[in-house]
Amino acid sequence: MKTLYIECNMGAAGDMLMAALYELLTDKREFLDTMNGLGLPGIRVEAIASTTCGIAGTHMAVTVNGQEETDPSVQEAMDAHHLHSHGHDHEHEHHHHHHAAPSHIGEIIGTLPLPEEVKAQAKAVYDAIARAEAKAHGCPVGDVHFHEVGAMDAVADVTGVCYALYLLSPERIVVSPIHVGSGTVRCAHGVMPVPAPATANLLSGVPIYGGSVQGELCTPTGAALLTHFAQSFGPMPTMVTKAVGVGIGTKQFDRANCVRAFWGETNEQANNEIIELVCNIDDMTPEALAFACARLLEQGALDVYTTPGTMKKGRAGHELTVLCTPECEADMAAHILAETTTNGLRVRRCGKYYLTPSFSRVQTPWGVVRIKRAEGYGVTHIKPEYEDVAGIAMEQGIPLSCVLDETLHGN
Q1: Distance of CA 104 to CAs 117, 151, 225, Å?
Q2: What are residue 62's phi and psi, to 5 degrees?
Q3: What are the distances in angstroms from CA 261 to CA 164, 182, 246, 267?
Q4: Is pTM, for the whole model, over 0.85?
Q5: Alpha-carbon radius of gyration of the chain
Q6: How far are the Cα atoms of 65, 322, 382 from residue 353, in angstroms, in the given order?
Q7: Cα–Cα distance, 83 to 79 (Å, whole number)
Q8: Local structure of 96: helix, strand or coil
Q9: Of the candidates 14, 294, 290, 295, which has an alpha carbon nearest to the alpha carbon of residue 161?
Q10: What is the DSSP letter of 281?
Q11: Closest by alpha carbon to 239, among 258, 262, 271?
């Protein structure tokens, strides 16, 4: 299986991600020619050989009218009704800009001479940034405004990453836990904590960490790209690597400031082992048991379910079953003992046959819907992501079945 593993030991920014993926491409010149032929006003993309702490790689210089911005930016609010979101991974410009709503940015992306799939991905990334900004600052999405001139180099970053991934066509994308930095970052309108509020919203549900490095390491654009494309987060899977791309940032630290992209093959095994942790419970209310099940899922269980039954002395109760990986067995057992009233549990080590999971995305008339796939043994299962379908149905005021039908038809 063609696998891309993205290592974010120093966070991620759009230009760093684009540079790392650029190094993996077979036809680098075609990529640069396409990026510089998009017609974005004043924008030029140039791949510059660079090093960080002795590691050779590429710095992707995205210039606006010949000028490159150098520091990671923070998406910030002017006020609740007029939010100016810089949306780029470099330093704020300090002169006046016209402003563009997310819908206008979407229109600009829609006119670019790129494959439709690439444009759909880029629009989805910008939509995610706008939603994160609106949530961070307590305003409607329509009140989020990007600096139009400064946003053009961000459009180049986002479309560049989407186009590079389109050319690579990985079957699986795994991202490491993301180093977000620590402390605060100064921007044009004050000091913000790291990670910035919009970045924190984008990284909800994703493994992140701080550490001793002061400053903003993961930008909103980097966070939006990673969370949009990653199928899972965690350590590098066992893989035979064929190439490593190194995308280098502009800031200097006491350690290598880069994103590394490992390109190779994983050999997914059809057989594996899974742990079943089982206990009988007859002294918890249904609400308390449901809460415990939700907590166990949050703590890393692969699945949790209950089966009603009759316990000793005729008491009504439930058999609780928790599935986890072998390496999580001890921790999960401790969580079950803490979250439920049971005084003990049984362990079953089971062989497992499974279909290999993957993800794709379908563009519907109302937005992008993620598709979950599972393949193997000559079988393919396809299922739209419920949250995406339900979100569109609620937002558009249309039946869930309409969105499902359109999604499966488009697939």
Answers
A1: 19, 11, 19
A2: -110, 110
A3: 12, 24, 6, 18
A4: no
A5: 23
A6: 56, 18, 18
A7: 6
A8: coil
A9: 14
A10: E
A11: 262
* Amino acid letter, residue 267: N
Cβ atoms of 52 and 258 within 8 Å: the answer is yes
Domains and CATH numbers, the chain: 2-265 (no CATH), 271-353 (3.30.70.1380), 357-410 (no CATH)
Cβ contact 352:275 at 8 Å: no
Distance CA 14, CA 124 (A): 15
Residue 12 DSSP symbol:
B
Q: Is 380 left (phi over 0), alpha (psi -120 to 50) or beta?
A: beta
Parallel, antiparallel, or unpaired: how do β-strands 346-353 and 240-248 relate? unpaired
DSSP H/E element including 119: helix 116-137
Residue partners of 313: CB distance under 8 A and separation at least 6: none
Residue whose C-alpha is closest to residue 389's, from 364, 366, 369: 369
Determine the 3-state secondary structure of 278 from DSSP: strand
CA dihedral 191, 196, 197, 202 (to 10 degrees): 170
Tokens 């390109």 sit at which residue? 263
Element (H, E) at 261: strand 258-265
**What is the residue-level pLDDT of the chain in tens, covering all 411 positions?**
899 999 999 999 999 999 999 999 999 999 999 999 999 988 999 999 999 999 999 999 999 888 776 433 333 332 323 333 434 443 333 333 445 566 778 888 999 999 999 999 999 998 898 888 888 878 877 777 654 334 778 899 999 999 999 999 998 899 999 999 999 887 655 788 999 888 999 998 899 999 889 999 999 999 999 999 998 898 898 888 999 999 999 998 999 999 999 999 886 554 578 999 999 999 999 999 999 999 999 998 999 999 999 988 888 999 999 999 888 999 999 999 999 999 999 999 988 877 777 777 888 888 888 888 888 777 888 899 898 899 999 989 999 999 999 888 866
